[in-house]
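Incident log, structure service

09:12 report received: a user says their structure output differs between two submissions of the same chain.
09:20 pulled the input from the user's history:
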Amino acid sequence: MFPAITKPYPGHIAVIGFVVVLQVFSSLSVKADELVAVSGRSGPWQWVNGGLNTNYQFNAISLDNQPPTVVAANNAAGIAMTPGAALTLTYVSGTWYGGSVSGAWGPTGVPQAQLAYNPDQAKDESISEWMPGHWCPQSEFPLHWMELIGVFTDAGGSIIGTPYAINGNRALVIPEGAAQLQLGAEDCEYWDNGGAVTMNITETPEPSTLTLLVSALLGLAGAFYLRRRRAKE
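09:34 re-ran on a clean worker, output below:
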């Protein structure tokens, strides 16, 4: 049985503080995990001519894509969509395919088909139709047909920032104003697509938060050590 503590000595306060900060640090540093399946028929965002995302139109002729897969705040999975935190997407399983090109691929797409090296090449010339990748910045290229594309949006689906090429593994920093991440395939006609890929989503706190907590832990540990050493002298 431990003796009763009748007075909160500085050492005791340091220990209590250390334990509290350690618990907070542990809760923040544990990755949240959520599995999501993205259909080969899903476009990465929705748009309305003259309305929602009107400046980001793709598949405008066929209009046959399904809505995107949406990753939003999920208490059960621990996803908070906190600005500054990192969302890491990792390929888990599954394949999808796109129309007339035989075979099935993962989220990296078809290496040999419709390779695009800049935004103006993210297009199906046979029907003069833009793909979602047309709105990715040059730094995201080259892109592949049936590659996994993601974009942050607000709660209403309006695009925030720029679309990203997710490939099989990508870490993204959640921007201010983002309420969800939307995912879909790089294509221009979706009616003849099929299959799905499953991605694991993890969220970790921003580095500055972890650095602050680590500094607090080290400071409390140091103070406790000095108190104990002086008490023994």
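09:41 both user submissions now match this output. Likely a transient worker issue. Closing.
09:42 reviewer note: The chain has a mean pLDDT of 82. The radius of gyration is 24 Å.
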